[in-house]
Predict the structure.
Amino acid sequence: MSEKKNNYTIDELMTVLMAREVRNDDILIVGVATPMVWAAFTLAKLTHAPDAIYHYIMGNTFVFEPRQVSLLYLEMNTKRAYRFQNSAECTLESLPSDTLTSIEWFRPAQVDQYGNTNNICIGEWENPKIRLPGCAGIADFSMFYSRGSFLYTPRHDTRTFVPPEKLFFISGVGFPNGEPSICGGSGPQCIITNLAYLDFDPQIRRVRLKSNHPGVEIKTIKESTGFDLIIPDSIEETTPPSEKELDLLRNEVDPLDIRKLEVLSGKERQILLNEIIEKEIKMEKRYPRKLN
Amino acid sequence: MRESKLMSLEDAISNYVKDGDLVGIGGLSFWRKPMSACREIIKQEKRDLTICTFVGGIEVDMLVGAGCVSEVRASFVGMEVFGMAPNFRKAVEQKKIKISEESEATIAIGLRSSYLKVPFMPLKGIIGTDYPKVRDDIKQFEDPLGSGAQLMALPKIDLDVAILHVPYADENGNGNIPGAVWMDADMAKTAKKTIITCEKLVELEDIIHLPRKAQLPMQTTTSVSRVPYGAHPTSAYPMYTFDALYIQKYMQMDFEQYKNQNIIDKNQIQYLEAAGGVETIFNILL
């Protein structure tokens, strides 16, 4: 990796790329424990998508105004909701719609070349080596969205990107065996990783390389993918974050670097987590700061 | 006059939670979980419970760690940014508990089927996943009215008891939730018994004037117990947020040691003192 050469970190690049997928008329579905997604949506709200609407599962609320990413006080956003949802609305109402467009980012533990995903277990389901937390709503919605589903992972390696026979459980449906998405959705649209931007070949509906991140060799991406990655003849390099995007992300959207928790692991992650908690506990005002 | 439903939490758990019950737990993830009630279940050594919750976290992990649980039904059980739920994970990997693989919709639709008194409801979802391979009680079928649509039949979930924590309740059993309700109201509608714990005990007159009134209406409530900080270390909006420092400590401690120091023989005051007392309360207050 050539992160040092660049003026941005990988979490910043990924967040910016995720923000760029947002459209102005989208409903932004913010799931549980996904600060990078929240940061991306908020960055989009501050740049090209001011009219987009958040749907937070943590409050089951529709919220219009953008606020700074927070770990401890995100529930305070519920205070500013213009609508609460409850019951089956929490899972179904905002989602499969012919008239609304929604965007939701799923972070798979495993993904195959058809965009099928697994968040349930590593090893056989009856005898798991690792029991993962679960897929929450991915099983319900991955095949539904008219805009398709959007995937991201900061761990582009052969443990995450696997052929179908090594995907231990389909908990999110992509293009089954390369067939069109079922239930009327558009299917998976892209996978943003720490190495590359991947999309899907429209004819055979398999993962292909769209652009390599600056400084990342195509060979590295190929070797980090556990299935046969489609590599077109001409590949462009990913457009890096602009100064404006970086400035907004660092100073307005997520100054505590909460999104970074998604890319770090081990001790580094623990240190950052402690720092974030310490800073937020010290805050007198416990509403995440409103941005505009 | 209606009879007061006020009861000590000890009596409520003792009277209304039986070994082998299907127990619904309200809240979501680290938000508004009935933690004191879960601690009481652990103290009373309830066994063989099936726990059903929309999105589970530390409450499921504790109940599993204490050996109270034989099966879990939840769309997610984890500790969010703090990591995986250690006791839950270990118990599944060692096959000590059963899993009914759920999504958000299988829980939401299952509860709704139950109170609508239908054996199942259809969902246009789950299709194409591996859920049917591990759930012999769900089934794909074609729309009997002839549209040709493929649907998934999801069975009802009949709770024996629902346990819900709310900011405000009155002694008649009306519960008011200023923040998100999630599946709490559905659970109260369908459970044979509903145990409510509350931060503040108010009067019916207050419930009438509170925004959104009683999302948990008194006619479905079995008991009400006043337990300030009863959701700690999860949140109770708008009073306090979740206790990140405490959850981190929990993650690092051996569970038996944790249980002995924080749950066994501890009343709510002693529990809060062990959790850091006034300083902790100042840290989490919104």
User: Anything to note?
Assistant: Residues 38 and 49 of chain B are 12 Å apart (CA to CA). The mean pLDDT of chain B is 97. Chain B touches chain A through 61 residues (CB under 8 Å). Chain B has twelve helices and eleven strands.
